[in-house]
Structure formats: structure tokens, C-alpha cells
Amino acid sequence: MSAEPTRPQSREDFEVAVICALPIEYDAICLAFDKFWDEEGDVYRKARNDSNRYTTGRIGRVDVVLAQSAGMGKVAMANLMNGLMSSYTALRLVVLAGICAGVPSQEKENDILLGDVVISKTVIQYDFGRQYPGEFSTKVSIADGLGRADASIRTQVEAFESDHERGRLINRAAKVLTEIQDKGKKKRRPVDYSCPHPSTDLLFESSYLHRHQGSSDCGCSTTQACNVAVATACEELNCDASYLVHRPRLEQLVSNQDDATFAELEIFVGCIGSGDTVIKSGERRDKMAKKHGIIAFEIEGAGAWDGAPCVVVKGVCDYADSHKNKKWQRFAAATAASVTKAILAGYMQTDKKLHDRGGSGQIEASSPSSRHGGNVYGSITAKHVVAGGDFSGNNQTFTFS
Predict the structure, then answer these.
(1) Nearest to 198 by CA among 251, 124, 140
(2) CA dist 387 → 187, 354, 364, 384, 397 (Å)
(3) C-alpha–C-alpha distance, residues 158 and 152, integer Å
(4) CA distance 344 to 176
(5) Coil, helix or strand for 384?
(6) Per-residue pLDDT tens digits for 190-219
(7) 180 shares its domain with 270
(8) One domain, residues 43 and 181
(9) Based on CB atoms within 10 Å of each CB, which residue in 124, 252, 298, 315 is the most buried?
(10) Together in a domain, 153 and 294
(11) Do residues 69 and 140 share a domain?
């Protein structure tokens, strides 16, 4: 019988944070937790100027701090990151989890469907650049753009590009999704995280606009839709099915099963476009995706990317076109939460700092070619020890017994 996990002693014991922007994203992530450390109130406090609200707990074997930004967009997320990093100074991984818009692909093996999950290899801020007459030019140079992911993040993310590791990740996430769906049903106010039927996964040709067809008494035209049309479902507007894009993977799903299952989900790794402008144009989506190699669009990643070692994990809920709706959002939030927990199952924690428990230990510092040279030996018996020295680039080793 496994021992009950020990609650972290301080904020410095947390290496992982999960952040999000929307309540549906937050709720889905909460269902991925196995234990909460703050059930009876806050135990860790926060830095003086930190305005964030935190939830702490355990996902699998990893202690995690969870936070939701005070609004959508990169500014709200950057503010969250500033407070997070001031209170939790030992973080080595921040996962931005939630929902996004996917970019369709004409390649069968790369065809993104609703409910699939994207993982960031890079993030590009698509609304940062210069507006020329008739064209907006995104800045993508090293000097102007977002930085590269942390080396440890790149190593992990690149592993997910292999069929073997991605398959293992999908298998782990499948089990987690079932847990999340079961927990959702048992909540005080039950929440349905089941997958909508794949026949509701509609992708129209990029140029086909979501609008009233043949109506002259509204604001719809050949280039834009009226407000009523924007808020109306495709089924009610009678969007023409002859403009639907032929997708073999989706058609196979529809023909093979009555109910969609997580086993059919795919995970894609690549460049994610991030900006405060919500994309609702299939033509603009395709143009930017082709130019920058973008596989998905969202609106918080740019605010979090440079603030800490970060990876974006988001479930696809629409296609960034005029036909987008909220039908798949809850399931997409659940798939993102499932993949997040599956990623953390493989997270390698660092050696912990020595916490005083009234014991003693031995310390050895070795630096043969240091300015002061030699080895230093000592016994730790006091509650607080401060050691100082001047070393010049060699490894120092500390051992305790």
C-alpha cells in the first residue's frame, strides 16, 4: 500500500504550474488533480505585490500550482506570469492549458480535427508587426519575436514528435479523459465532458462565409455576415453542405462508430500563433498558417512564453473561421487537461533541496582549480547554515548523509 503523499513545506517546493484563462479550462484542469493541498484554506500565501489567486495540489506524483488569469489575452496572461514567478520562484515548467482554433491540413496524416490537442514547439505573435497599405507584416525576426523554448522544454516536446512517444502520451491521456468525464458527472452540478458526435465536426471551404443565404433584409453581404447570422448555428442558417471539405480521417470516424471515443484523438506538435485578435476568417487563417507554419491559433501564449519555461497545450474547439461555435469547447478543454496530466506523468523532478528536520549532514565542496582551491568539509548541525565562497566555473558537489 503506497504511502500518503507529503504536503510541500513551502512555495519553493513547487516546480510545476498550470495556467489558463477561461473558467471551462480551469474546471477541466481541476478534475485532473488527484489531491488538493488547500482544501481547508491557503497554506502557502504569496508575494506582497502578487494579485493572483492560486490553487495547490497534486497531479499524479507532481505538486502543482494552478492559476487562472483575470481575463483573456496576452496582457492578462503576462500579468499573471509576473505574479506567479514572484511567488513561486522555483518553477521549472509552466503549462498553459486550454482551448484553441486548429488549422486544417490537406495532408491526411496532419489533418487536425476538433478535439485534437496541439503542443507548442514555438509560439509566434501574429498581431505584432507593421501595417502597410493593403497588408499587415508580422515581425518574426530573432530581435523582435518571442524567444526559443527552454532547452529542457525543447527536449521533451521534440520527443512527442516521434510516433512512439506520442502514442504513449495518447494512451495515458485516454485513461485520464475517462477519469475527468466520470468526475464531471459526479460533481454537485454535473458537467458533461463527452465528445460531440464527429458528424458535427464541420469544416467549410475557406472562402465560404457563415451568413444568411439569399436574404435582403439583413446586413449580410458576399463579404460579411450580420450580427444575427454570427450568433446562429450552421444548421439554422442552412450552410450549404456542398462546401464542406472532404476529410478521409473524419469520414472514417463517422462511418466506424456511433459515438466518438478518445482513442481516435491525435496530438500535433508545432508552431502556435498567438495574439489578441480572434481569427474568424478561413482565408486569413490559411494565409497566416502557410506563411509562418502555424498549426493552431490562441490568444494567451504570447503573454506567457517569455515569462518562464513554458509549453502550450490546447484542445482544438473550432477552425478559426466564420463558422466557429462553442459546441466543442468543453470537450476540447477536457482533452487538453488530459494531455497535460499525461505529460506531467513523465515529468522528471529535480533533486530536492535539503530541508532541515533537526538532523545533521556532511558537506563537501570541491573545486580543484578555483581561486581558493582545495576541498571544504563541514558538519551541518544548526537550523540555518550560510556558506560562501568564490569559485570560477567548476562543478561543486554537495553530499549529505
Answers:
(1) 251
(2) 51, 14, 11, 10, 13
(3) 10
(4) 12
(5) coil
(6) 999 999 999 899 999 998 888 667 655 676
(7) yes
(8) yes
(9) 315
(10) yes
(11) yes
Whether 352 is in a domain gets the answer no
Write the CB contacts of 276 (distance below 8 Å, at least 6 apart in sequence): 73, 74, 75, 127, 299
C-alpha cell at 194: 463527452
pLDDT tens profile 101-134: 999 987 767 789 999 999 999 999 987 655 656 6
Judge residue 311's burial from the number of C-beta atoms within 10 Å of its C-beta, 0-12 exposed, 13-18 middle, 19 or more buried. buried
Tally of domains within the chain? 3
**Domain carrying residue 371:** 358-401
Reported as a single tens digit per residue, the pLDDT across 305-353 is: 988 899 999 999 999 998 999 999 999 999 999 999 999 998 888 776 4
Q: What's the pTM value of the predicted model, to 2 decimals?
A: 0.82
Strand ranges for 150-244 from DSSP E:
none
Q: Which of 185, 220, 244 is the last residue of a domain?
A: 244
In-domain check, residue 289: yes
Provide the grid cell at 397.
558537489
Strand-strand pairing, 294-298 and 267-274: parallel
Domain match, 212 and 66 both = no
Residue type, 327: K
Three-class SS string for 47-102?
CCCCCCCEEEEEECCEEEEEEECCCCCHHHHHHHHHHHHHHCCCCCEEEEEEEEEE
Amino acid code (one letter) for 354: L
The answer to whether position 235 is within a domain reads: yes
Q: Does the residue 253 lie in any domain?
A: no
